[in-house]
Every structure is written in structure tokens, then in C-alpha cells.
Amino acid sequence: MNKDALLLYGTREREPEGRTLIAGDLSVALQDGNLRSLRFRGYEVLRAIAFLVRDGDWGTCNAMISALAVEEKEQGFSVTYSARFTAPSGANLDCTVAISGSERTVSFSADCISDADFETARAGFAVLHPVVGVAGQPVEVRHGDGRIEQAHWPEQIEPWQPFKDIAAITHRVAPGIEATTQFGGDVFEMEDQRNWTDGSYKTYVRPLALPWPYRVPKGEAFGQRITVDIRAEEGAAFAVASDTVTLALAPTALRFPELGVGLRPECFADQLASLAVLKTIDARHLIAYFDPDAGHGISALEGYADIAARSGLKVTLELALPCKRPLDEEMAELATFIEKAGLALDTLFVCPSVDRQSTPPGSQWPQCPPLADVYAAARAAFPGVRLGGGMMSYFTELNRKHVPGDRIDYVSHCTNPIVHAADDLSVMQTFEALCDVVRSTRAIYGDKPYRIGPSTIAMRQNPYGNATKDNPAGGRIPMASVDPRHNGRFGAAWALAYAATVASAGLEVLTLSTLAGPFGLVAGEGETTAKGELRPLAHVLARLGALAGEEVVAVETSRPDAVLGLASRERLLLANITPAPQTVMLIATPRKVVEIASGEKVLASGQHVTLQPYGCVEIFI
User: Fold this and answer.
1) Which of 604, 535, 530 is nearest to 574 (CA)?
2) C-alpha span between 68 and 293 (Å, rounded)
3) N or C, which terminus of the chain has less Cβ within 10 Å?
4) For the residues of 214-276, what is the DSSP string, one character each?
């Protein structure tokens, strides 16, 4: 099992065991003391109810659970336990938790007190509503003053809170089934978590307009409660799911994007040693990270010039502009350095350094020159070079601060799947939101040339705190600077599913890795793949690189929560994004089926192909 876990996840660490609690037609998973996948007659009612504590940098304080007691009866269940959350300062927040459920209701309460002043960015309940089948649909919101608001769930991703001062939310779960979720003990509001590619709308405690981080005073008790009531009309149906995944293919006028690979100054030795990989994956672009505030100077540019000369690839300089001196002065100095380094740029992507940090609702925007002036200075210093704008961070920041699209040649941003949660299921559910991210970007910028990346499972920068989180034990940690799943088949499936999800956006460049290092393509010590050999991710990127410029054939699967895919006229690539085998029925008997990571042939029975857990296959059609 440990060897299989290392092969799949890049780590032998196993996720916490969950337990399914059932009361009549209602079911919910208990995991780490929180509730997930609340379902009624098979339909997803809520994605999660969780009591969470964040430290001052929005890192997660894990709960130490004791005195756990679970009682199940025919018509209901109950759970009680004690939880201790410890801040980096050593202060403890102790909570007494009670959960109960019946055939139509679930209740979750927490009563807490701290043994010292406890600094936190947020401490309390978060409730996640799903987006699939919910986005754009009617919703009723009851506010704290009793006022009822009839509205719709956001369809295009909202940059700000769609609803505030929430006392209850009533939404349609399925035909004839609706649920009311009530919030008590504090002031709740909602954010559209698709901004961060979370597949949910999140209702959370404590408005963001209030100062954060804040302190929970020593000895000051507080309590919160969530209650869910489900109503079903007589004869309301049960959800029916097929075990076999079916496909629908449709030609488009789109072309597959060219592949980019990120470069970083701290990895020059390993990058030079891995240059052959660029040809293996048929990369076309080098995305070279350059941050003067981090000490990057002419030596970094010389290193990039060396790699560009040896590889022959086009270079995009990804510039975090300090904006601390006159713009024309900073840009002219950079142009001089680039000329001295002998670095030829294909494009220059410019983002003011301060814009990499998030500006939450209610916060004051940091001082920054007008973006039109930033781009004008870049044009003057780099005539004839294509200019990109957007955010070096994530779609969230781009959605909150629109760049003037008429001043740039292309728009770009990244995404990251472990901002809020890092468990396997949550990471793979991000594709439900990623499709809305690209649709929302297109709604803002029309047919402007569009690039995404570098986007990786691990977080390369933290817009929401002082730094990314260290991960020396190789765990599943939100906002971690290293994620072991990048090294396993999980990471390969994630990359292929990512490419499949954004294929409809008509991107010109997609970047899903760096060349070397923890975000890279070559294995290090202690991995299933031998040191210096290609990680499974690289084999997927090789297939994607070979598709560049070919016509996209849209692939729709009957189970997008299980299998995602993309196709050209001759090849179909499928990714299983679950830990269970998935059987797919093809539209015709394939000529050949190959497992991408290993190159082994996959046994197919007529039109049926079985994908192993987190397996990626190439099908010749």
C-alpha cells in the first residue's frame, strides 16, 4: 500500500480516514471532525460544513481532536468531541463540538474559549455550497434584520461578496428538493470561491471589512451554530449515476495552445542539466521569473540568456516591477540590463510588485502607478516587444483589479488549487471552477490573446500572507511551497485535467510547470521515479506539447467529476481524477490505447477502456 501511495501521490502519508453517517435518505461524511458531501437522495446539498481556524497569515491551524464519540441509530446520528487549535504563538483555542443529524436535518455547533490572546485571520464556521447545477439558479437569502432577498447565485465569478449579513440561505437542490441553511452566533457573508478555483460558494464568519488578523481575547467565550433543514415534495426522485463514463466529441475552430515552461534564478544548475527535457515535451516558450525586489539582477538575466541560446525557445520575461522610482527610469534600467545580458525577449509580461498581494473587500488598495502608465513605460523601453499584462498571482487578483486590455497584447494570470484546502478531493474539484475562471476572463477581455501559468499544485507565492508554507514532511498542506503530489500520478492527472478544462478558452500559451526544482519535470531524491528521470507530469506535457496548433475537438464526459479529456482529430487523452478505477465507453473501438506515464498498452474491451486510479491514457482513434 505504501509503495502504491508513493506512486500515486508522491508521499506515503495517507489522508485521514472518513466515516459516512446515514439517516434515512440523508448521508454525510465525517472527516477530521468536519462534515463533507452532505447528500439527500444522492443529490449534493452542501459540499462541506467545517469549523476552521486560520493563523494571522491565513494558514490553517489543524485541530487536535479528543474525546470523539459517535452514536448512530436507525433514524439519526450524533457526534461530540473536543478540539484544540494552536496558534504559532502557542496560544490555544479550545472548542466543544456537537453534531446531530436526522432524516431531514443536520446541526453543527461549536463553543470555544482561548487560554491566551489568540491571533487569527478567521475562526469559525465555513459552509460550502456546490457550484455545479447551482450557479445562475434562484436563491433566497434571509438577512440578520429579517429581510428576505430573492436573488440568483452568481454565474460569472463575482470579485466581491455576492451576499452579506446572512442569517439563512434557501436553495434548490434538485427538482422537488430544497434546503435551508441557517447561521448563528456571528455575522456571516459569502464569497465566490471560484475566484481561487474552489468548486464552491463559501459562507463564512466575520466580514472581511473588519480588521484582520484580530485577537480572540483570553478567556472570552464564543459560540456558533449551523443548522440545515431539507424539504422534499412527495415523489421527489433519487439521483441515478451510471458506473460507465460516456463521451461526446465535437470539432471546434480552436487550436491547442503552445506549451510554456517556467524558469527561476535559484535553479540554474538543475535547469542547465535538464535542457533536453524541453525538446522532449516540445515546449515552445520559456517563462522567466524576474523580481528585482528579491535581488534578481543582471546575473539572472545572463542565466536566462544562456538557457535561451542553448534551447532556441522564445523567452517571456515575467517582471515584478518595483514601481519605487519613476517608471521610465526603472524600465530603462531593465532594458539596459537585458541588452548587456544578451537576452532576446519575445514578450514582456509586466505586473506591479504590489499587485501580487491580495486586496480583500474592504481593504485599502496599495499605492501603485496607473497601469496605463506602467504599460506606456514598458512600450517605450521595449519597442517591438509584445507586451503582456494581468497578474503574476491568481485570477482572484485579476478579477478584483481589471487591467486595461487595450494597452496590452495579451492577458495572463495563474491559478492555484490549494489556497483554502489541500485534500485530494478538493484539489480535483477545482476543475469545476476553472472552467468558470476562463469563461469569466473571456467575458471581461473578449478575444484578447490569453495565457495561463505557471500554474502548479504547490503555491509559488502567497498573495494572502507573508509567505508560502514550508512542507518538510511532504504533507497535504494549504498554501504549501512544495506539494508531493506534483511528483506522482496524481500530479500528471491534475495537469491533463487542467489542460482539458481550459481547452475551450483558446489560449495561446499554457504553462503547468517549471523546468527544474519542486515545480519541475525531473525527479529528485526519494521519489518513485528514479532521480534525474522524468516525473509522470512530464509525460503528460509531452503529449500536450505535441498537440500545439492542432484543432481542438471538444470532449464532454458524462462524469466530469471522475474523468476529463481533450482530443484532436486523431488522438484522445483522458485523465481519471479519482482514486478508483473508471470505465469509459468510447464512441468507437480504438486503434491503440497507451498509459501515458508508463508507456504501457492498456487492455481495452471493444469500446470500453478502464482507467486506473489517477491514470492518464492516450487513445488513437
Assistant:
1) 604
2) 49
3) N
4) EEE-TT--EEEEEEEEEEE-TTPPPP---SEEEEEEEEEEEEPPEEEEEE-GGGHHHHHHTHH
DSSP label of 522: B
- Residue 2 has a pLDDT of 60
Task: Mention every residue, 6+ apart, whose C-beta is less than 8 A from residue 81.
Answer: 33, 65, 66, 67, 68, 69, 97
**Residue 493, burial from CB neighbour count under 10 angstroms (0-12, 13-18, 19+):** buried
- Cell numbers linked to 275: 535542457
Residues 203, 437: Cα–Cα separation, whole Å? 20
- Residues in the chain predicted with pLDDT less than 50, given as ranges, are 1
Q: Kindly state the DSSP code that residue 452 receives in the 8-state scheme.
A: E
User: Alpha-carbon distance 141 to 620, whole Å?
Assistant: 50
- Say what the pLDDT of residue 1 is: 46
Say how far apart CA 111 and CA 113 lie, in whole Å. 7
Res 372: pLDDT: 97
Burial tier of 243 (Cβ tally within 10 Å: 0-12, 13-18, 19+): exposed
pTM here is 0.94
CA angle, residues 517, 521, 526, in degrees to nearest 5: 65
What pLDDT is stored for residue 212 in this prediction? 86
The answer to whether 455 and 511 have CB atoms below 8 angstroms apart is yes
- All 3 cell numbers of residue 463? 498573495
Tell me the C-alpha distance between 340 and 345, whole Å.
13
- Give the torsion through C-alpha atoms of 434, 438, 439, 442, to 10 deg: 170
Chain centre distance of CA 385: 31
Owner of C-alpha cell 504563538: 89
User: Do the Cβ atoms of 533 and 517 come closer than 8 Å?
Assistant: no
Q: Is the peptide bond before 449 cis (omega within 30 degrees of 0)?
A: no
Whether the CB-CB separation of 353 and 399 falls below 8 Å is answered with no
| Residue labelled with grid coordinates 504559532 | 88
**Rounded CA separation 592/308 (Å):** 37
CA angle 5, 6, 11 (to 5 degrees): 100
Residues 609 and 596: their CA atoms lie apart, in Å, by 14
pLDDT at 116: 97
Alpha-carbon separation of residue 90 from 67, 109, 110, 226, 526 (angstroms): 22, 25, 21, 28, 33
The amino acid at residue 562 is A
Residue pair 545/277 in contact by the 8 Å Cβ criterion = no
585 pairs with which residues across the strands? 246, 608
What pLDDT score does 57 carry?
Answer: 83
Using CA atoms, how far apart are residues 359 and 75, in angstroms rounded to an integer?
A: 47
